[in-house]
Model the fold of this input.
Amino acid sequence: MKRRMRIGIAVVCAVPILSPLLFLSGNDYLIQAATRIFIYGILVLSVEMCWGQTGIFTFGQAAFFGFGGYFAGYMAKNENITDLGVLLLIALVAGVIAGTLIALFLFSGKRVGELYVALVTLAISYVCEKLANSWTFVGSGNGIPGIPFPTIFGKEISSSIALFFIAFGLFAVSMIICILIIDSQFGLAINAVRDDEERAEFFGYNRSLIQIIIFIFSAVLASIAGALFSLSEGFISPSSLGLTLSTSTVLWVVLGGKGTFYGPMIALAILESVDVEMQRALPSLWRILVGLMLLLTMIFLPKGLMSLGEKSRNKREQKKTT
Amino acid sequence: MNKTIRRKNLLKVSGIAVGVLALSSTLLVAPSQAAPATGSPIKVGVLTDMTGAFAIVGKSNKAVAQFTIDEINKSGGVLGHKLVMDLADGGSAPDVATQAASRLVNQDHVSMVVGGVASFTRVAVRGVIATRGKTLYVWPASYEGNECTNNVWNTGSAPNQQVDPTVKYLLAQGKKTFFLAGSDYLYPRNILARVRQDVLAGGGSIVGEEYVPLDMTDASNLTSKVVAANADALFEVVVLPGTAPFIKGVVDAGYKGTIAGTLFDEGINPLIGTEAQGLIGVQDYYGPIKDAFSQSEVAKFNAQHPEAKGLFTSTFNAPAWYRSIYLWKAAVEKAGSFDTAKVNKAMDSVSLSKSIGGPVGFAPGTKHLKLSMYLGQSNGDGSETVLKSLGQISPYQCSAATN
Done:
């Protein structure tokens, strides 16, 4: 078993063992915060698969997140479909459709540059936010509030602990699937496309198909995360489609180290858990500090926080060999 | 070799696990919640936007909340308890606001939450606070109406309280044709629906109704439509940042009719400049109203909070924030308890004989206030002239919504 998978399984086992500590505190706010970290974790996974593993710089992943959130939220509120399985399936289909359309547009032709992809996806996220903001059908600026809790076999899931485990379960499944993909033969192919599109094509890989598949896969992950978000938070609004969330996601990936798989999730967990407290302690400074951190990381640690560990390991290994 | 590495990894992983365990156990054991001991401070949740698009409103809200809480503490607190402000930043975004609201309710266990600037914040946080959180939520803003959720209380003006007297005044001035213009979202649409109803009922006619995107800054298209229609009166609810360019455009293009709206006062006029001259509106407070209590309170506020001097205005919801905390205090004292269910019951009929802007009180069953309202006219220098004191106006909301 490879190292990545071992860590993955360790995380999957550790969370249920450690989580009773969280529940014993009886603090719903902390449980909700942890739930949110796992939901955003799925979103981060989707960006890591696209950008970190396949080299598709998706700068507008929030568009898919919000898309799934709006679809599930609308169905739950206005069509009285509250079954969690059905709603997630709806989000999955929505993700496939949206992902396919955009992936075909971006990757079916000849090779396009990384920046081109970034700009187009960013623009899509921007347009979606504007659209949701002015479309009365989906609540305009108010979004969709008062989304009912999801149900499983007709039973309402309303406790934050249950929602926590649903979010964690979906996160764990998504993560294991991602690891399986990366560790497979197909994983080697997507990394080849990331490292050098042209060379990968020369070796006979269908570069276009690989990019389309990964893009759709990551759109589906983001869409499911969005659906989960709207159901557990009870609302969805245009900001969940837009630039702020899109850039936050890229920020987590860059800070943690794109391509390192666990780095982005660690960055997300750290930043999200201190965010509200920092926002409170330094209301006007915190955002600037985050921006500064991002800049410094990009200048001094272009591979993100995870490269710190790598550096020290390299040093140790150098010592051993000398 | 391989085996030793694995063993080392195992050691490392278990080391990390033990570390996390130890850390989280110290972090997560939160202080247990209990009924307030005699004399212990009571937390008042203050949710407003300290950052983002509405930061200027947040600055005013925070200062007003602090001012009101200080004043209550100076006169003995509530049921013998001092109040402390627990401030949470909504970040001008609903997802940030729900996290902040959840912190107030689920972690800090505040006694009640007052706040929210935009309606999208209210609809996002009311579930967290009032429904799931079973905590009293006071929404202190003039808004589009129809908020009747249990445990939620509205202390700003409802559409009819601002619109009815404004339209009545315009009709009495002999205005017959009206043009309606607003930003494209819930608040302007609901306000203008009320305007339409009032105008038609009063024998006037609507010659045009236009909506523009929320973030419009180039108003030339809308301006030319308004000027071409040449109605006697223009009722506009184009919100910031579009307000100033739109009104300037209409006035500069030579529109001769009267311009009325729901968002004109000393907070907004300076942004419009000299073109603000003659704008008509109705608010629950203007600087020059003839009310000794309001005058002395606002003077005190400006002295104690120089950072928010001049921000005590109706469009920044300042009078509503002030009365929100006092109305809650009155309800707690009436109920003799901080218990949400009891306070919620008492809220329905509490009133204040003195408040900034004049006496107010809940109209039972409506979850909204009977408010003292004033008809005002803007001056070119940003100030307001009070044309008429309208007395208390009832809200047509919730159980009284059919009017």
About this structure: Chain A touches chain B through 44 residues (CB under 8 Å).
